[in-house]
Every structure is written in C-alpha cells, then in structure tokens.
Amino acid sequence: MLIGSAFLYSIMPVLIRTLGAGRIPPMSQVFLRYIFAFLAAFVYFFATNSKFELHKKHIPAILLLSIFGYALTNLWFTYGILYTQVGTALFIFYCWGIITPILGLLFLKEKMNIYNVIALLMGGAALVLLFSPAPVSTWKLGAIFAFASALGQSFYLIGRLKLSQYNSKFLLLCNTFIGVITLGLLALIFERSFYFSNQGIMTLSPATWIATILFGIDNFAAWLLMSKGFQFVSTSTGSMVLLAENIFALIFAFFFFAEFPTAMTLIGGSCILLASLLVIFKGKNP
Question: How many domains, the chain?
C-alpha cells in the first residue's frame, strides 16, 4: 500500500506543472483538486457501505488533523517551492521521513532496532545527495513554509495512528471535506480575482480541467493508501518506504521533462531503495 502511495504521490509534480501552465494560482490549485478528492472519497465511502460514526470527544483532534495535517500541508509545500530554491524546499520537506519516526518514538512509544536507525541515517544521506540543498543562509521564507509542510505531514501520520479506531475511509472523507472548506475560504479571500474576473476560472481549458480532476483522484488514492498502509507498520518503516516517492519522481522527470539524473541522484535513489528494503525486512514493526 505504501509503495502504491509513493508511486501516486510521485505523479503530482507533473500535475502541478500542468495546472501551473493552465494559469491556476497556488491556493486555487489545492482547493480545486481537493473538491475532486472529496467527491472521490464521498463515492468510495458510501459505495463500500461505510457508516459515519464520530465521537464528540474526537472532533477537535479530527479538525486539527484535517486542517493542519491535510489541508494546509500541500499549500505550505507549494509556497515553499515558490519562495526558495526547489532543491532546498524538497530537501526540507522530505525530512518528514526523518522527523516522523522520531515523533513516533516520543509520542507513540514505538520501538526501533539497529536496522531502523541505519535506515534513518541512510535516508538522511539520500536526501542530501538527491536535492543538494543550498547553504542555510540562503533558505529565507520558503524554508519556513517547507519546514511547516514537513511538520504537517508528520503531524498527520502521528495523529492518524492516535485515531486508529477510525478506518481510513472515514478519516479521508473528513479530511477532504474540511480541506475543501479551508482552502476554499483562503482562495476566495486571497485569490478573489481568479473567480470574479473575465480572465479567471471561466477561461480554463478542458485539458486543465481534466488534469485537475485527475489530480484530485490521484490525491484521494495516494492519501487513502498511505493512511491504510500506516495501520500495519511502524512510523519508521512507513516513512522510509514513502521516501521511495523520490525514485518514482526521478523516473517521471526523465520521461516527461527529459531531466537526466546525475550520479549523485542515482546514489541517493539507491540509498532510499536500500533503506526501504532494510526496514521492510529487518525493521521493528507491530
């Protein structure tokens, strides 16, 4: 499930570039794709005869999880890309793969063995090799957004495990619904002209709308597989496996944008692959 999730996430940079070329501003990009992610989650939830059962005491936790761990994480990531070097933003964001196991150790009392530790070190080295981040003095505002996005991703994964009594279908329905409301309000406030001008949403091409719909479905499926996958493994194992997204992303970048990987990126990708295999077969899991 996590390998499938990593694959679906790796398609997203291609779709982000497509929507950007279609002249959709950042907040509206996330808002529109969340609409279709919610519709997909809604159909899936009721098609599987699931029951909507929510305990009042968990409402604050689900709201926090949906707003900060789901709705805003992708928005912060987008602004991280816009306001600092891409390599730096990606390096900081994917550090969630290192942050999450540490938080799991602190808040979930998960156990780690020597293989988990080795995999974490390999994952950290791989991120440096893959993205070659610029010196800290150049990070500026974009680094703050990228780091907030990394924390948001880790916050979601830890919160998801804390709310393990709810199945993934239910949580995803809540996440996408609250995500639509949150990003919709932000988009209408800060990108108002996109919705109320002659050069805005009404001028989007059919190809852009198709890409938006596919993006929403991809977002739904990737998040669903990730949420389901973390029901069966520890945070350290799951985080390392999800870093395989970078390997798939290199492949897509090669085929769609003719971006040839360097020796460093190939070594970094190999480190991630080895780290993933190590935690799958030797790491500490439930």
Answer: 1
pTM for this model (two decimals)? 0.83
Q: Which domain holds residue 237?
A: 2-282
The per-residue DSSP string of the chain comes to -HHHHHHHHHTHHHHHHHHHHTT--HHHHHHHHHHHHHHHHHHHHHHTT------GGGHHHHHHIIIIIIIHHHHHHHHHHHHS-HHHHHHHHTTHHHHHHHHHHHHS-----HHHHHHHHHHHHHHHHHH-PPPGGG-HHHHHHHHHHHHHHHHHHHHHHHTTTS-HHHHHHHHHHHHHHHHHHHHHHHSHHHHHSTTSGGG--HHHHHHHHHHHHHHHHHHHHHHHHTTTS-HHHHHHHHTTHHHHHHHHHHHHH-----HHHHHHHHHHHHHHHHHHHHS---
Model confidence over 176-197: pLDDT tens digits? Answer: 999 999 999 999 999 999 999 8
